[in-house]
Write a structure and sequence with these properties.
Strand order of the largest sheet: 7-4-6-5-9-8
Number of helices: 8
Radius of gyration: 30 Å
CATH architecture of the largest domain: 3-Layer(aba) Sandwich
Number of domains: 3
Length: 429
């Protein structure tokens, strides 16, 4: 379980700027300490627990980058073609046991080890074969088409620092270095539940004033995409004592508890009070739209064994509207998950595109607008705003390509302005 303290999110202001929230998470949240060794084939999405150094050179020996002829550069004429005797043949996987003599060339194939004495390779399409000889043109640079041992990675070099989230390219690199297992942080355990007397399970009987719960399905998919082990606790009624009991129970066996709904200021919004009964909710409004009523805090968990100290489980309370759940997850929950999981922070770099609409917003608030990308008449990429702004409009996520990020100092956007675009793939990680 993550070791948290009640003041880990300490913030005294009414609205927490997004940048301050990210700083607090980075400074005050300790990652889970448990690690495990997993097969490389099962390591995608896991987080490296320690720096990984290259055990061998990559490539492990000098080799040819092309199909062609290996030569000694000192044998080449400077002012014309050079005729060389072909003295052998080397394929990939064969050992180069014979040194290349002066005035000779060796037929060589891509990946084959360079013979001793050879330092340059001519591509086969650039030469002329004349019986047992090969005629090579002038002008090829020393070392052309030769891959040097360790030119990609020399033995002993840091290849992946601790905190790397392993993707296919990382796994390929580790396999090329001969590794078959890797030490990673354990997967985070996250409990989720929805609140609200109006929310019912999809597939169940729905009364006239009820809605089907989409938020738990959204959260589960987002969490699993980030490698978390998810426990779905279902839908809880708007009853303070029941909420407090469910939160306290979930805190014992999980690193993070996420709820949706019930964190605003309405009379039926009881999550805030429930958390304060069994822990601390140190801020509950972030300067972000959609999603201002998002809360973070700590739930105190009783020790599972007599010799254990009391520990804390991180808590995040998200809004009830599904678009607000999505936005606050990718911009608030995801940084917390990365920190808890021991992963290095991931910078979001908005891509510049052209706005095809006008927009106004309040100062000192980060806003995210759902847009579709298209090519303008001049070939420039431009963003078109979805016609519906509501935080409950799920189709505004399925019918768009990503979000425009308007920073706190922006108040107006005009058609033609350069704006920052974040794709859904980049946001979800």
């Amino acid at each position: 379980m993550a070791q948290l303290t009640d003041d880990c999110f300490a913030f005294s202001g009414p609205l927490l700027p997004l940048v301050d929230m990210e700083r607090l998470i980075a400074e005050r949240i300790a990652p889970v300490g448990d690690t495990e060794r997993v097969p490389l084939r099962s390591a995608r999405g896991r987080v490296t627990a320690a720096d990984i150094l290259a055990p061998v050179d990559l490539p492990p020996f000098d080799n040819s980058a092309v199909d062609g002829y290996a030569v000694r550069h000192t044998d080449l004429a400077r002012d014309g073609d050079t005729k060389l005797v072909v003295s052998g043949r080397l394929q990939a996987g064969a050992r180069a046991t014979v040194a290349l003599a002066p005035g000779k060339a060796i037929r060589i194939f891509t990946g084959a080890a360079m013979p001793a004495g050879a330092d340059t390779v001519f591509m086969q399409e650039d030469v002329t074969v004349d019986g047992d000889n090969v005629v090579v043109p002038k002008g090829l640079a020393l070392g052309a088409n030769r891959r040097i041992a360790g030119e990609d990675v020399p033995a002993g070099r840091l290849v992946l620092p601790a905190g790397t989230v392993l993707e296919a390219q990382h796994i390929a690199l580790l396999a090329a270095l001969g590794l078959t297992e890797i030490v990673v942080r354990r997967r985070l355990k996250v409990a989720i539940f929805s609140t609200g007397d109006e929310v019912v399970e999809p597939g169940s009987e729905r009364g006239g004033a009820a809605i089907y719960d989409a938020n738990r399905y959204l959260l589960s998919a987002l969490l699993e995409r980030l490698g978390a082990v998810v426990t779905d606790l279902g839908i809880l009624a708007d009853e303070p004592a029941e909420l407090a009991r469910a939160l306290a129970k979930a805190a014992v066996w999980h690193d993070l508890v996420i709820t949706s709904g019930g964190v605003s200021t309405g009379e039926a919004d009881h999550v805030r009070g429930a958390v304060e009964r069994i822990g601390s909710l140190t801020f509950w409004r972030v300067a972000i739209k959609p999603g201002r009523p998002v809360a973070m805090g700590v739930i105190r968990a009783a020790p599972r064994k007599a010799y254990e100290a009391n520990s804390g489980c991180a808590f995040v309370g998200l809004p009830g509207n599904p678009v607000a759940v999505f936005v606050t997850f990718v911009r608030v929950v995801k940084p917390l998950l990365l920190q808890l999981g021991g992963a290095r922070p991931q910078s979001l770099l908005p891509l510049p595109v052209r706005a095809a609409f006008a927009y106004k917003k309040k100062k000192d608030r980060r806003e995210y607008v759902r847009v579709v990308l298209r090519l303008g008449a001049d070939g420039e990429v431009e963003a078109v705003k979805h016609p519906q702004d509501g935080a409950g409009i799920l189709t505004s996520l399925t019918e768009t390509d990503g979000l425009l990020e308007f920073t706190e100092n922006v108040t107006t956007v005009s058609p033609g302005d350069r704006v920052g675009f974040l794709s859904y793939a980049a946001l979800m990680g």
